[in-house]
Amino acid sequence: MSLIEVDSIRKDYPSHHGTISIINGVSFDVADSDFVAIIGPSGCGKSTLLRIIQGLERPTSGEVRFRGKPVLSTSNEMAMVFQSFALLPWLSIKENVAFGLTARGWSPEKINAQVERYISVTGLVGFEEAYPRELSGGMRQRVGLARALAVEPAVLLMDEPFSALDALTAEGLREEVLQLWRDPELPPEAVVLVTHNIEEALLMADRIVVLSHRPSRVLAVVTVNLSRPRDRKSEAFYELTDYLYSLITEGAPPPGAAAKPLPETGALPASSGAPPASAVAPAAPTGEGE
């Protein structure tokens, strides 16, 4: 059984000109120990889809299932890291990390032990009594990560978490997230990352779900078969990046046309039953949202 099943999700919003459809029949799954990236053009509903998976929004139709059960409200088994950090400025770093645990009614002793653990895991020791305004963007995102991990979620949802950071800080945090994901003693079991950056998706993910322009549908699910740690200067990485970029600029092939084949090295097509790895939707420009 899949950890998460996203089944025929549709999301519409009312407007002055009638109903606007953002997402139209998106389906994919997330397995145990999976790292899935979702890419697509700006405005295609990537962030909305992530909120639907978490249970923060309800789909117009379709269903998200976690371990076989429908997600009908916010799931305690999933935690999210936001692009904008979303920290409470009047709380100290320690209090921000403890926020979710306090909301769940944990005892003070258990909260203190958990906060201490994830303050240490995310490299925030010495900043416990500081406030968000006193920290750099990278350190604030560490706080957001610590807060999400402290509840020990089965699934970590990440909504463009590195896009507001400088290149070197983002690179360091990407590696730290991968280390946490690979550590069997730490959460999460799986990660779902929304990103507009193709290189970031290839550096981090095992599978890449590609969404079309709005109303979005799944154009491709590409399985990345590159050894870790991934070398962005390798020929295989370059070929796959170029492949995805060419599909972004050329768009999906017309109905009945032959799909551009994947490079012989570095990637495998989606598994049987998933959409063919035939195209990749344009990524959003750097710094943009959905």
Distance between the termini: 29 Å
Shape: globular
**Secondary-structure element sequence?**
EEEHEEEHHHEHEHEEHE
**Class of secondary structure makeup:** alpha/beta
* Sheet with the most strands: spatial strand order: 6-7-8-3-9-10-11
Oligomer: single chain
Question: Main sheet?
Answer: 7 strands, mixed
Tags for this model:
290 residues, alpha/beta, seven-stranded mixed beta sheet, globular, disordered C terminus
Give structural notes.
The strands form 2 sheets. A 7-stranded mixed β-sheet has the order 6-7-8-3-9-10-11, sandwiched between helices. The chain is of the alpha/beta class. The longest helix has 16 residues, at 167-182. The chain has helices spanning 46-54, 93-103, 108-121, 137-150, 167-182, 198-204, 235-250; strands at residues 4-15, 18-30, 35-39, 61-66, 69-70, 78-81, 155-159, 190-194, 207-211, 218-224, 267-268.
Strands, helices and their partners?
Blueprint: E1 4-15, E2 18-30, E3 35-39, H1 46-54, E4 61-66, E5 69-70, E6 78-81, H2 93-103, H3 108-121, H4 137-150, E7 155-159, H5 167-182, E8 190-194, H6 198-204, E9 207-211, E10 218-224, H7 235-250, E11 267-268
Helix pairs in contact: 2-3, 2-4, 3-4
In short:
The chain has 290 residues and is of the alpha/beta class. The protein has 7 helices and 11 strands.
